[in-house]
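Morning!

This is the sequence you dropped in the shared folder:
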Amino acid sequence: MTEQKFKNPRVCKLILTYSCNLNCLYCFEKFKTNDQQKNMTLETAQKIILQEIDYIEKSKKFDGLAINLFGGEPLLCFDMIKAFCEWIWGISTGVAYAISITSNGTLLTLDKKKWFQAHKDKISLSLSVDGDTAAQLLNRGVSLEDIPINFARETWPNVYFLMTVSPETTEAYADDFIKLTKLGYRLDGSHATGVNWTEEDVKKYEEQLRRIADFYLTNPQYPPNPFFLHSYADQLANKLDYFCGAGHHMIAYDYSGKGYPCHMFSPLVWGEDIWHSLTDIDFEHPFAKESDLECAQCPIVKSCPSCIAYNLQERKNVSLRDKRDCKILVAEIRVISAFQIQYYMQRVNSLNRESQVKLKAALAIYKQVSKDKVSKYIN
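The structure's back. Tokens below.
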């Protein structure tokens, strides 16, 4: 069921363990531990999924259940993963589902690989690859050779590797990205959040993004990754109240079986159970009332993907945005919207409705960032 596509899924993350064998530079999970008491049992996972199936059947809001096995490093709980999968594959349900695992990949032994290969059509593995060995060592403390990227690509050719760029790895970002793309790897990009990006770091990052954009434009045999085809259609909306599904389309269950709006609200990130602080939050409309007048007046606020968990953790308010991200967000929008305008205009006579909307949105937001209309909001 790994190829199951949903238009409106219920996303259910199971945090299988608080343990991890790595300590990545930008990791947001500050409370990892090797305490085996913080591993999810099979019985807890079964109970959660049966509850979720029942909820979906009764609510009629969703067209499927996207189950993501998460950590820590979930492959530390491989025996539990096998037992869970064999159980769910054996039950009868009218709810369509897909199972994925988010992993660093370093624990994929030969036996694990054989099991995944045997069940590759029913479960998928998503790995993080931050670049060549130098970038991997800086960000994650392991070399590229420690990650079975060839196995993952051959087993799940349509699954993207996540490539996160940090201030420490910015200068090699484009070279590594293009090199891996030419080798046939499907990469999705993002920048490290919750870290301090200097103005010089942002300039270097923007230049790296331009190089990748130019690569796509001059090498049409390589389809752009989802990051470069991100839709800015929100910019065309009258109003936008949220940017993710936390608390309504998404739920993350802790090892204890307790549910949180997403994994970013879990004790693994916070160090404590903060559920009592979440009961008064309107997760359907967390930005309905902007708490910062400056942000409310920013012309690209509707395209600002602010993390409500970070906002609550660092500023005690889900709608108070992290202004450390302003410059880097503008840099991304400036490059990606310009790229999309060129990319879609090259294909203007064959665009479907979705691509036409993306082009219109790219034109709209590019006007905002190219004329420095946002400068007074990001200084």
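Headline: Residues 199-218 form the longest helix (20 residues).

More detail when I'm at my desk.
O.
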